[in-house]
């Protein structure tokens, strides 16, 4: 398989919405003080993030805040901007996983180095291509991988959310649990792009990244991935995390 861009994908930090299932009614929650601490500590733990050339973030508040805090040494007047990218917004249709109107989110971050050029009006309405439906989520993730694989940058950070990161990385291992994700807050995995057998861009977690997580170098086969995907999506649908 031909190697392509290398991406670092960081999950969001601790927010009021992730603190408890009882807080799922909160609309687009921001980071808690603990989440801010996690974000500040994130960059220091992963020196490889020093070489980043592009920072992408879900337009949801907690993701943008995580990107700004975790990568504060990279953003600003003489550095990069955080590019808000609706393709990596969270998967579910819960209120806490739904963003806000573009005008409102722009107003909140207007004095900070955040670029909203890629955010289209209505991005936060969970309908059409943004619907929390299994087929739409799989399609959105595939299109996102396609777009990322064609970027000229070699080191990209994507700050997204635990559930959707399973779709984006095409890795659903251990995703059936009470949090519907195996991604802990403020964690990083490095992923290399390659062309799959059908020439579509596939993502594979690097050996170094797997070793950091205490895993062996061998990941699931394509057949095992598809079987796990079917089982996981069925469970998430039964739990109401996503729709059929």
TrEMBL record:
Coiled coil stretches, renumbered: none
Pfam families cross-referenced by the UniProt entry: His_Phos_1 (PF00300)
GO molecular function term, any single one: phosphatase activity
Residue span of region Disordered: 12-31
Protein's name according to its UniProt entry: Histidine phosphatase superfamily
InterPro entries linked to this entry: His_Pase_superF_clade-1, His_PPase_superfam, PGM_Phosphatase
GO cellular component: cytoplasm
Polar residues bias: start-end ranges: 12-21
Domain of life according to the entry: Eukaryota
């Amino acid at each position: 398989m031909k190697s392509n861009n290398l991406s670092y994908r960081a999950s969001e930090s601790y927010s009021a919405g992730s603190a408890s299932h009882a807080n799922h009614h909160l609309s687009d929650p921001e980071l808690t003080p603990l989440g801010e601490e996690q974000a500040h500590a994130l960059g220091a733990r992963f020196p490889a993030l020093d070489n980043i050339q592009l920072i992408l973030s879900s337009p949801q508040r907690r993701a943008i805040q995580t990107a700004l805090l975790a990568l504060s040494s990279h953003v600003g007047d003489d550095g990069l901007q955080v590019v808000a990218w609706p393709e990596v917004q969270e998967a579910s249709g819960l209120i806490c996983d739904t963003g806000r109107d573009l005008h409102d989110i722009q107003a909140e971050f207007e004095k900070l180095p955040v670029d909203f050029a890629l955010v289209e009006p209505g991005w936060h309405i969970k309908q059409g291509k943004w619907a929390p439906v299994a087929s739409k989520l799989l399609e959105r993730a595939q299109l996102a991988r396609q777009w990322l694989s064609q970027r000229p940058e070699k080191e990209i950070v994507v700050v997204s959310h635990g559930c959707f990161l399973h779709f984006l990385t095409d890795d659903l291992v251990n995703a059936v649990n009470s949090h519907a994700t195996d991604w802990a807050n403020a964690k990083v995995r490095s992923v290399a792009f390659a062309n799959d057998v059908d020439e579509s861009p596939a993502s594979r977690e690097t050996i170094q990244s797997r070793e950091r997580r205490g895993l062996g170098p061998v990941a699931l086969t394509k057949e095992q991935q598809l079987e796990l995907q079917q089982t996981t999506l069925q469970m998430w649908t039964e739990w109401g995390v996503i729709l059929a």
